[in-house]
Amino acid sequence: MIIATAVAVSAGYLLGSVSPGLLIGRLHGVDVREFGSGKTGVTNVLRSVGRLAAAVVFFADIGKGTIAVLIGSRLFDEPWAAALGGVAVVVGHNWPVFAGFRGGRGVATAFGAFLAIDPVSALLVLIAGGVALVATRYMSLVSVTGVLLGTIVLITRVNSDAIAAEYVAFVLPVATMIEINHVGNIRRLLAGTEPKLGQGGTQREQPGT
Fold it and tell me: Are 57 and 48 in contact (CB under 8 A)?
């Protein structure tokens, strides 16, 4: 189990450190970290590059999370390796070694990991999130509430013995990371200043300017 977990965690972090948002942005002559939120995730790519690029990044980020969990669950058949590999891929996405430790907030990548752990529950959460996004157009609100809902669903599934208990070790740290990464968004939501989906893509001020 130790070797399987070490391989899954290492592979997960390195996989997470590959930043599709940064790569797609550079193909368009843009460093997405210089615009909007400064993050490399789907929402900021949409703001700074466009819809098609955002769609590519969305599926690529989900794929990273899914593959990281499958390494542990299918290659090694070890729930601990799968759970911790899922944590590692989100850490890699948020603090990527290949991009100066400046990444995203981990929502799509965490969803990809959740999809590999419990596909039906993940898709239900995605549908609920999609409805909320259409209703509010606040991607950050959908993210923070979706992560909370996903956590509740996963723990409920563990308690009903539908999935292995080890996956609690995935959802609790990942949900905590994502919620902490959205503290600024939560404050802006409460203040009524949070940009809606597609808004807020202006270039960021550089230090000293």
Answer: no
Integer Cα distance of 109 and 60 in angstroms: 8
Q: What is residue 75's predicted lDDT score, i.e. its pLDDT?
A: 93
Q: How many CB atoms lie within 10 A of CB 159?
A: 11
Sign of the four-CA dihedral 121, 127, 130, 134: negative
Residue 179 lies in a domain: yes
**pLDDT for the residue numbered 203:** 61
Considering just the CA atoms, what is the radius of gyration of the chain in Å?
17
Give the range of the structural domain holding residue 171, as residue numbers without chain letter.
Answer: 2-191
Identify the bridge partners of residue 35 per DSSP, sorted by sequence position: 203
Q: Summarize pLDDT for 45-75 with one digit per residue, the tens.
A: 998 999 999 999 999 999 999 999 999 999 9
- φ/ψ of residue 33, rounded to 5: -70, -10
Domain membership of residue 201 (yes or no) is no
The closest alpha carbon to 92, from 2, 22, 1, 167, belongs to 22
In a domain, 196, yes or no: no
Q: How many domains does the chain have?
A: 1
Is 8 inside any structural domain? yes
| pLDDT beneath 50, residues of the chain | 207-209
